Amino acid sequence: MPTLVDLDRRGRIAVLTVNNPPVNALSHGVRLGLRDGMRQAAADPGVDAVVIACAGRTFIAGADITEFGKPPKEPILHEVLDVIEQSPKPVVAAIHGTALGGGLEVAMTCHWRVGVRSARLGQPEVKLGLAPGAGGTQRLPRLVGVEKALQMTVGGDPIGGEEAHRLGLLDELVEGDLTAGAVAFAERVVAERRPLRKVRDLDDKVAAARGKPEIFAEFRKSVARQTRGFRAPEACIRLVEAAVNLPFDQGLAREREAFVELVNSPESKAQRYFFFAEREAAKIPDVPADTPAREVRKAAVIGAGTMGGGIAMNFANVGIPVTVVEVAREALERGLGVVRRNYEATAAKGRLTKDDVDKRMGLIQGTVDFGAVADADLIIEAVFEEMPLKKEVFARLDKIAKPDAVLATNTSTLDVNEIGSATRRPQSVIGMHFFSPANVMRLLENVRGAKTSKPTIATAMAVGRKIGKVPVLVGVCYGFVGNRMLHQRGRQAERLLLEGALPQQVDKVLVDFGFPMGPFAMGDLAGLDVGWRVRKARGTKAPVADRLCELGHFGQKTGSGFYRYEGGDRTPRPDPEVERIILEVSQGQGIKRRQIPDDEILARLLYPMINEGAKILEEGLAIRASDIDVIWVYGYGWPVYRGGPMYWADQVGLKTIRDRMRELQQRTGDEFWRPAGLLGKLADQGQGFLEGA
């Protein structure tokens, strides 16, 4: 086994350097090296103190999560931390990059911590469905206080070096060479004969919260909405409570029990699966990592509507100048006004300064001159969802854009190949489907046309990551991956209304499953007229939704849709008028209404999505089943603690889903329920999508 921890001497200070690229994870070799290095330094009479540092770009960035669920290898992390904390000689952690999870737990067992201003320190375990498992919930509140420890542990977001220093998590900020600064700090500790400062023995910051249960009650209330359905956040809160109310060793024992329970929970297994699925989505088998991607120094967006403005914000947010083109000055000014108000709203919440707002707005140049895009490296079309209009735009771009520019369409459903055919360079055309609101939603569905070149794909994927999105590559079909699956759910949602359900019952089933909202509330939010326009263009119908649109009930923007909205309030309220329309349409179609149980509603909403996902995989329109899961978690609100639709299907069992669909097909005579070939094949083989597709 290569040595992952080096022991060096600088005068009378031992320096233990972890070197386990890329992120110095706490693998078995690192744990072994730290334990043995600490023992060696403790036994060496020529060593007065120890510095723990890391090579490369970061301090220890966490546990090696590939070891989760496997038999533990000695030494386990707790044993290593005991050796560090019980060292008879001072131990100083030298932190740069990120000290996360187990990395921060290592640092907190050291007697002192120094770091650079750019360091990031945090406990993100909750994002994997876990609580810290090696003392994090017990030591952090003793250093930063209970309220901040709750925020960091339940929110999972790191803090910067300066804030860590102000809170007491770092004892000193180092300018210049970090290791040299840490050695100098250790030498001062020795020279001043400071007593060893064990975090476990600190009590003042947890004592301040003792006898104040309202601190925890108020915090629970503040996070209730965003933690709904998750198991780990409540466990984290209880463990910080234990740090306040129990002796340290009892709190530590509680934490270990909670960690074991969580690591074996279905929620954490799903979240850990998703962690790897997101990273896998970046890998495209026939587009190697070294494929040359165009550097995007300047971008352009055609259209200053809701989507166009949101897309432009993504570029300004990362310092890339972007030109926004509109046909009319009034529409341009209205669109840029919305962008400015979005930034000002963020500034009002303290997340941007006025200078930040001005700087970002300064990077967005509005114009009615189409020729202004001539020097852009990437041009994204975000005009109305009509093929003739999009082809007209691309034909104009073909004449103006520089030869190596990437031409992207933000279409959510239309044929990227047909759009590309309007140009003489279809190899430079790609779909870049942003999700609304485009400046917030993290998914970017990149759509590969038949002639799209590999450098064009590499550019779209790279720029997606640069602007903070999670890009996933898909193929061309109506609705691509996400909307194609959503369409099947929508068809059943409407059918359930006709057979006996009401909008509020259908929506509640999906909200209880973990979605932020159900299909009818979502339709009202997006605007029912959007789908109505698409249905009319395609010659399809949704009888209830169509009737509402004919009456001018388009959702929240008109005060009524599937629900009523009163006085500007966005809370959906059941509408007797909608119920009357549903009953009329049911009666008109000769449908006998019945009570539909919730489990049937859930199956009829989700199983068609799974079936469509199987067809998408059969047709090669998604690279892997896990890519579909990434699309649905980041683009459509699928609860991450259920992994994604294809992961969830594997947990339910493909045979169960296939058999239920066959039963529905026999009962209704509707070909809609015919199981996809891949679903049937995998069910027969006893396999799941993630192992067999």
Topology summary:
Blueprint (H helix, E strand, L loop, with lengths): L4 E6 L2 E6 L9 H16 L5 E6 L22 H9 L5 E5 L2 E3 L1 H8 L2 E4 L4 E3 L13 H9 L1 H10 L3 E2 H7 L4 E2 L4 H14 L12 H4 L6 H10 L8 H14 L2 H16 L2 H15 L18 E4 L3 H12 L4 E4 L3 H20 L5 H10 E4 L10 E4 L5 H14 L5 E4 L6 H5 L8 E6 L8 E6 L5 H13 L3 E6 L6 H18 L3 H11 L5 H8 L1 H11 L4 H8 L25 H13 L9 H21 L6 H12 L8 H8 L1 H15 L8 H9 L3 H4 L1
Parallel strand pairs: 2-3, 3-4, 4-6, 5-7, 6-9, 10-11, 10-13, 11-12, 13-14, 14-15, 16-17
Antiparallel strand pairs: 1-2, 7-8, 15-16
Helix pairs in contact: 1-2, 2-3, 4-5, 4-10, 5-10, 10-11, 12-26, 13-14, 14-15, 19-25, 20-25, 23-24, 28-29
Write structural notes for this entry:
The chain is α/β, with parallel strands linked by helices. The protein folds into four domains: 5-263, 2-enoyl-CoA Hydratase, Chain A, domain 1 (Alpha-Beta Complex); 299-475, 3-Layer(aba) Sandwich (Rossmann fold), CATH 3.40.50.720; 483-588, N-(1-d-carboxylethyl)-l-norvaline Dehydrogenase, domain 2 (Orthogonal Bundle); 598-692, N-(1-d-carboxylethyl)-l-norvaline Dehydrogenase, domain 2, CATH 1.10.1040.50. 50% of the residues lie in helices and 11% in strands. The chain contains 30 helices and 17 strands. The protein has an eight-stranded mixed beta sheet with strand order 12-11-10-13-14-15-16-17, sandwiched between helices. Helix 20 (503-513) packs across helix 25. The longest helix is centred in the last third of the chain and has 21 residues, at 598-618. The mean pLDDT is 96.
